[in-house]
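Protein in question kept underneath.
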Amino acid sequence: MMEKAKQELEDVVGKHNIVEESHIDKLPYLQFMMKETLRLHPTLPLLVSHYPSETCIVGGCTILKGSQIFINVWAILKDPSIWENPLEFNRERFLDIKWDYSGKDFNKFPFSSSRRICVGIAMVESMVMHSLDTLLHSFDWKLPEGEKLDLSEKFGIVLKKKLPLVAILTPRLSNVALYEIP
């Protein structure tokens, strides 16, 4: 996957250029990788609590007015009745799925929905994607000798990696492309 991502970056951006925000929409492979990463590792496992304004029935369960409701987005995004091989990282699953971050599809909403939708969505769609693309394009990444990638999580209010990631970076671009300001 890393090689495909680098190839897409080279095809769109070029080997001796830096990533610009205008490139993001032309990098679907990397966008699908971001969506799959957010599906497997949502920032908040439990969305901000909701309080129904009236008693209602959801999925056959009576929810009383004023109850504090937490939505387990972590479980929804790993539900085998929704996702094929839900614990497997498979960015290709988004080739035929239209998924934006708007929260309109309740099977795919890592940033909540409705009035409680995260205000940081625009940042993910532009700044985080731009940063990720830049880091992948500018450096080759590898683990230290003998290390294995551990993606296990530590649960809390936000999800974190259980063990910090240690990576060795090697510049991919020429110094001119990395440091020259147009």
The chain has one domain: 2-179.
